[in-house]
Fold this protein.
Amino acid sequence: MSHDRFSSVLSFLEATAVVREHSAALRFAHTRKTEIVGLSHALGRVLGRPVTADRDQPPFDRSIRDGYACHAADLLSGQPLRVSGQIRAGDAIELPRPKLPTGHAIEIMTGAPVPPGADCVVMFEHVDYDSDTNTICLHPNRLASHPPKPGSNIVPAGSEARKNDIVLYAGTRLLPAHIAAAAACGAATVQIYAPPRVSILASGDELVDLETPPLPHQIRNSNSYSLAAQITTAGGQPQRMPLVRDDPGHMQSAIRMALDADLLLLSGGASMGKYDFAAESLQALGAEFFFTGALIQPGKPVIFGRLPHATGMKYFFALPGNPVSTMVTFSLFVHPLLCALAGDDNRVPRFALARLSTEVRVSPGLTRFLPATLDGGLESDVTPVEWQGSGDLANTAAANCFLVVPPDRESLAAGETVSVLLN
Ligand code: AMP
Ligand code: MG
């Protein structure tokens, strides 16, 4: 399609749907290399091959309480049960064990194998122990409220996973719980996808890099750093490229150089100013545009498309240069596509509901993302931070989420349940 800057400014939901469509296609079509890493280096990486159970989990009928293993029916009969031994976690189960006789109980600890014949474990706290006769009886209160049943406090062998079952699927981004599950399967190493490489091209004649002391009219290039951090957090491998001048020729050659990555991010020059050359440079290189703006604030001049390259089509985003706009548009649009490139099955961005602590007024028409603080706890309050707009990094740094204001709202009332963007 030929690029018309006004032709494809989409609502937030439309733009989200476009990115989701391309992400869904990428999840299946994109070929990814895999590599093997030690489990202790796998946190945050995306699993490229499933992890399977190397044996039944649990490997034996496991007691989940400290107490007595016995027959539920025996205990309910009201007759005292003789305590005839003890089993603790780590006691071997390979030894043949006599079946627990009727009228007997055996002391058992959490994590120990339940002996043959016993069908329940009753907690120490729920029985009366008579040391003279070395017997136990179920406490009368317990009999009335929660009588033991066959299976009480026992996790049967293989009930969590059977040997050879898939415990972790390819496409899982490994969080601490996944590392634990892999360790329980004996996976000392795991096969993970190589992270997608993402080129970052920041443009603007006012920009200087961190090594250069800025003159009064110059601005430090913070976007290359925020984007690199967001890419790393999202499981990608950032490549910060040299600064690009506000010059179409320079921008085109910089884009060509950056296109060997899996994804290209431009920052700055995406708007309609006289010195904004991102769209024109991309168009000159044969870009296909999926949208050239979204009705959001911050981040309206965000461009999404694809460029031809010798190694196949490459996706790009041209993000607005205002630092908070860059970060918000990354979270909303780049992050989901990057997850798809990485083979990560998680769907982002994540939103949550919270209670607004104070009234918020805006002019309607755009979906707004206002930097805000979300406090912890079961019922979280969200409070917008005072800020100077989408260039204000100092105050945005005090926020930990973005309050979402729908495009048809002029105000949100204190106490209202609202959506917040979490990442
Ligand atoms: P632009 O999107 O190029 O019109 O830039 C919008 C605003 O963001 C201007 O105030 C720029 O100085 C600022 N800006 C652009 N690029 C960056 C960057 N890489 N780091 C920090 N600020 C930037
Ligand atoms: Mg600029």
Summary: Residues 204, 246, 268-269, 321 surround magnesium ion (ligand 2) (CB under 6 Å). The longest strand covers residues 367-374.
